[in-house]
Amino acid sequence: MYSRRICGLCDTARERILAVRAEIPFEYEEVFVDHDLVLEREYGLRVPVILVDGEERFEVEVSAEELRAVVRGA
Known about the structure:
The protein is an alpha+beta fold. It has one domain: Glutaredoxin (3-Layer(aba) Sandwich). It has 3 helices and 4 strands; from the N terminus they run E-H-E-H-E-E-H. The strands form 2 sheets. The protein has a two-stranded parallel ribbon with strand order 1-2. Helix 1 links the parallel strand 1 (2-3) and strand 2. It is globular, with a radius of gyration of 12 Å. The protein starts with a strand and ends with a helix.
């Protein structure tokens, strides 16, 4: 997940992702775009951006139900 250190949407997305991860184990990595010019340009206004297997699957909001389906299908 690409996020910012201070971001309410990112906090919500993180909570949903970790809740799904508690049910269905998968690797999780969070990358903060703050102070990285390349990442700021790519993701800055769109965070949180959630990738699954390297593919952007969610932007701004993540649905727990949809994430479960995506993870199970991955």
